[in-house]
Specification:
The complex is a heterodimer of chains A (267) and B (316). In chain A, 17% of the residues lie in helices and 42% in strands. Chain A has 267 residues and is of the alpha+beta class. In chain A, strand 10 and strand 11 form a beta hairpin. Chain A is globular.
Amino acid sequence: MKSIYKILALTLVLTVFVSCSSDDDTATELIGENSVTLEFDNSVGSDDLLLATSSYTNSQNETLTITRLNYIVSNFRLTNDQGETFTYEKDDSYFVTSEETGNTEVVLENIPAGTYVSITFGVGVDQEKYLQGAEGQGDFLTVAEETNMMWSWQAGYKFLNFEGTFTSETVTETTDFKVHMGSHGSSLDNYKEVTLSLGTDALVSDEMSPIVHLVADANAILDGAHKLSLSEQSVIMVSEEKSPLVALNTASMFTVDHVHNGTGHSH
Amino acid sequence: MFLLGGLFSAKANDLLEVESDCIWKNTDFEYFCDTCGCGGNGGSMGFGTGLNNNFIGLRYIGQKYRSRDGIFDNSPWINENFNTVQAWGKFPVSKRVLLNALLPYHFHNRTFADNTEQRIEGVGDATVLAYYLLLSQTPDSLVSIGAEHTLQIGGGVKVPTGSFDAANIEGTVNPSFQLGTGSWDYLFATNYGVVHRNWGLSASVNYTLKTENSTNYQFGNQWNLTLNTYKTYYVSNTISLTPQVGLGSEIFSENKEFGLKVSDTGGEVYFARLGFETNYKRYSFGISSMLPISQNLNNGKVEVKNRVSLYLNINI
């Protein structure tokens, strides 16, 4: 019978161990600052977006092959579990993500430690920034020119550059489509903001720099809440009627897939 | 009686027992976390067991998985091969207390869609488990007329002797591609067995409680359940053959990182098991395989294809 006591004692000791170790979960205090990486992973529905090599058919029965998907994301704000919002330095807050160059990561530096629960960002360039004039744009003007995200300074930035080919019941020949959406100078404001819950808390501290993995569903651009038929109009650029709908659709294409907490050196 | 015994053992929770020589004899024992060292799909290979024997031996376990490299429906599947050689043994401490010990050596590889290969190799997590025999067979039970029951309960610890590489959990591929969990884990096991003439039935329920490792990653706790039947054929005085069929299941809780649940982890898998053991004098040679009947691991992003095990034990 002695042995059974030994076993019971052992079990008890183990239980204590285990109970103790599971209490540590949230005890860590977050101090310092670190970067937050936002990975914009482009998809078509639940499939990965593959430029030029695969096609898909949307709900309007149009079959698209996408060859370009670039967009501007800007004005990042992070909200923590206390409801406090950290606004990223405005002059550093403009980025182009481009599927063709593979540059789809946005790294926000020097974010104060905290438990972040949601993120807000803009799609495009706001009027305030644009009205600072060409000199006020800093390096971003060059970035936008190099990534085909400018018409001209007067016409302004393309917030979205979405191109490819398509066919449909009425358009049986493979036809190019171009959807370039922007604010068109200062006459039409298509800048939109998006707020997304992160789902999993993103923890920032001297030791922790999280990666937020976002998915942007390119199908939403034409086939989101607002249906835009390419058969009807295959080039949508400066359109007072359609551009605002593209802007709304584009702003709704983002979701957070998951958050990876940790040192976040690679993904 | 069989049913009662099975129910009883299914309620208790504990873990493994490394058994010996006729491994199918009596209880069986599903040792898992040693194999893949880790969470999401701790490769376990059951082994049945002969509660009466003490042994040392070597076992090879091969596990094949495929897992999704990416978050999308058209993300590529990659193949993963988990290989393990483990030294294991069971030693009596007293009449009713047994000690099981196990030290694995892993050599795993996987090939990504771009044909680059990743290999990891090294010692895995060592496990020590003590069993208390609540009910044990009489020595001549194999030829006794009535049914003989055995029941063991045990507890143990898995030591983080295997390395845990945080880089392997950062992507979106199977986070269990590791040599070890990097954590001190605690095991609880119950084994029940009944033998009647040449027939035997065994059942086991094991639970592994996993703790957070030094990189604040915590693999999900794990249940392992097995049920096996076998029959022993005595070819001569020194040779016997024991075929076995059974069922096994593994149920995993979600992994956590910094106390926050990690998406696409956890899940469950149910196996059919087939095995065959040959005993010659003091030696037992066995082969067994496990094929999944149904599974949903890591939200469908990891699939077990099969497991194969070979072992050679020497009774001591």
